[in-house]
Amino acid sequence: MSLEALRNRLPEYAKDLKLNLGSLSTDPLLDQQKLAGTFVASAIASRNAEVIRAIVAEFGPKLSPEALVAAKAAAGIMGMNNIYYRFVHLVGGDYATLPAKLRMNVIAKPGVEKVDFELWSLAVSAINGCGMCMESHEKVVKHGGLSTEQVQAAVRIASVVHAVAGVLEAEDALAA
Asked: Cβ(110)–Cβ(63) under 8 Å?
């Protein structure tokens, strides 16, 4: 399935999502790797098979094999970290002083530029709602030279991809 086919699957009430998906897919604020990787990581974080297939088919070929693996890795590692660090942040107490004791080697050696991996991690963290992780990754990408507008573009991609996944799941559930 292509991105256009995915857009065409959206019902009329989701016309804004359809338009946003189209315009964000060519957003000039992000270079091709940042844009494509953000779409892939966000699609995986959306946990919707149809969205994942369409977005990886569209954006996967725009990434090097290493960057595609890194985008997938960002979604994977943040799926773990967002749960853990959201707990630490929300519960407070002594948990913040304890070592996480979770392997996170891919963050140190993602196989792509650190700023790209961090941007993808930020997008996934936005989807998963981990404020502690969003703050951490936003600081790294800003320190790495990305502008506020570039960070916003990545989070806009994450928000639209996640919403598209939700609409398609709802439509499939209602049709069943």
From this structure: no
Contact 162, 42 (CB under 8 A): yes
What are the residue boundaries of the structural domains of the chain, listed by start? 3-175
Query: Considering the entire predicted model, what is its pTM?
Result: 0.95
Instruction: Return the CATH number of the domain spanning residue range 3-175.
Output: 1.20.1290.10
Among the listed residues 14, 52, 56, 133, the single catalytic one is 133
Give dist(CA 64, CA 33) in Å, integer.
8
Give Cβ neighbours of residue 75 (< 8 Å, ≥ 6 apart).
Answer: 40, 41, 42, 44, 45, 120, 124
Q: How many H helices and E strands in the chain?
A: 9, 0
Q: Render pLDDT for 44-69 as a digit per residue (tens, 0 to 9).
A: 999 999 999 999 999 999 999 999 99
For residue 81, indicate whether it is catalytic.
Answer: no
Which tokens hold the place of 136?
């951490």
Q: Is 10:149 a contact under the CB 8 Å cutoff?
A: no
Q: Considering 6, 45, 130, 164, which one is annotated as catalytic? A: 130
Q: Where are the alpha helices (DSSP H) in 29-64?
A: 32-46, 49-59
Let me know if 1 is a catalytic residue: no
